[in-house]
Amino acid sequence: MAHPSIVILTGAGISAESGLGTFRDEGGLWAQHRIEDVATPEAFARNPQLVVDFYNTRRAQAHDATPNAGHTALARLQAEYDGDVLLVTQNVDSLHEKAGSRDVVHMHGQLDSALCGACSHRWSAPLKMTVGEACPRCSEPTARPDIVWFGEMPYHMDRIEDALSKADIFAAIGTSGNVYPAAGFVQMASYVGARTVEMNLDPSETVALFEETRPGKASVTVPAWVE
Ligand SMILES: CC(C)NC(=O)[C@H](Cc1c[nH]c2ccccc12)NC(=O)[C@H](CCCC/N=C(/NCCC(=O)O)S[C@H]1O[C@H](COP(=O)(O)OP(=O)(O)OC[C@H]2O[C@@H](n3cnc4c(N)ncnc43)[C@H](O)[C@@H]2O)[C@@H](O)[C@H]1O)NC(=O)OCc1ccccc1
Question: 150 alpha carbon to ligand 1 midpoint, in Å?
Fold first, then answer.
C-alpha cells in the first residue's frame, strides 16, 4: 500500500517558541503595527522607509532565532517518510531550513530574499536592506523585501493546489486561519477526502473544518504526531 501523501501548512505559531512574535496573539506584530502601514504594496509606495525598517527588524530577529522541536520533527518526517510530504509555510523566517528541512514552500515569501520591483530578479537580502537599493541585474533602484503583502498573489499556488488535490493527510500547525487563500486549504483537502488535523495552541477560525485537533504547543504536539 503506497504511503499516504501528506501536505503540511505551518504558521507563526510554530516559530513562537523560537522567540518570533506571532501576528494576532497578545502583543503580536499586528498589535504593534497596522497591516495597512507595513504589509501592503500601497504602504511600501507611501512610506518605504517604515516598511524596510519593519522587515529589517524581523530579519534581524529571525537571523538570531533557532528552530524548536516542532521544526525539527517536521525535518525528520521529511527525511524519513517514504511517501510524499509537502511542507508549505506562511512564515517568512528560515527556521524550517535551519532545522534541516529541504524544499520548503514559502507561500508568503522570505526575509532572506530581496526582489526587484522592476524586473522581478531575486537575490539574497542583506541583513539590513536600504530604500532605493539597486537591483544587481537591471540596476533600477527598485529593491523590495521578497514578501507577499496583502492584496498580492501568494507564491507557488499551482504546486500547492496540485498537492492538495492529491493529499491523503492535511495538517495545519500554528496558524489562526484568518488569512486566505491559506485558510481555505483545509476545505480543498477535505474535498478530496483527505484526513485533516489541526495542531494549535488555541482553536483557529477554521477549527470546525478539521476532523482531528491536537491542542497544545507545537514543540510538544508535532513530535508526538510525527512519531
Ligand atoms: C486579513 C484577511 C481577511 N485578508 C486576507 O486573507 C487577504 C484578502 C483576501 C483574499 N481572499 C479572501 C477571502 C476572504 C477574505 C479575505 C480575503 N488575503 C490576501 O491579501 C492574500 C495574501 C495574504 C498574504 C499576506 N502576507 C502575510 N505574511 C507576509 C507578510 C509578513 O509576514 O509580514 S499574511 C501573515 O498573516 C497570516 C496569519 O498569520 P498566522 O501565521 O496564522 O499567525 P497568527 O498570529 O494569526 O496565529 C498564530 C496561531 O498560532 C497559535 N500558536 C501560538 N503559539 C503557539 C505554539 N507555541 N504552538 C502552536 N500554536 C501556537 C495561536 O493559537 C494562533 O492560532 C499568515 O499568513 C502570515 O504570513 N492575497 C490574495 O488574496 O491575493 C489575491 C489572490 C489570491 C489567490 C488567488 C487569486 C488572488
Answer: 9
pLDDT tens digits in sequence order for the chain, 227 residues long:
579 999 999 999 999 999 998 876 667 777 778 888 899 999 999 999 999 999 999 999 999 999 999 999 999 999 999 999 999 999 999 999 999 999 999 999 999 999 999 999 999 999 999 999 999 999 999 999 999 999 999 999 999 999 999 999 999 999 999 999 999 999 999 999 999 999 999 999 999 999 999 999 999 999 999 98
Which one is catalytic: 71, 96, 106, 108? 108
Contact 118, 140 (CB under 8 A): yes
Is 27 one of the annotated binding-site residues? yes
Closest Cα to atom 16 of ligand 1:
180
Report d(CA 116, CA 126) in Å as an integer: 14
- Nearest atom, ligand 1, residue 30 CA: 45
Assess whether the C-beta atom of 15 lies below 6 angstroms from ligand 1: no
Helices (H), ranges, the chain = 13-16, 29-32, 35-38, 41-46, 48-64, 69-80, 95-98, 157-165, 185-191, 218-226
**Rounded to whole angstroms, how far apart are CA atoms 169 and 187?**
12
Tell me which amino acid residue 69 is. Answer: A
Ligand 1 center to 175 CA (angstroms): 8
DSSP for residue 19: T
Map residue 101 onto helix, strand or coil.
coil
For the four alpha carbons of 21, 225, 155 and 194, in that order, the dihedral sign comes to negative
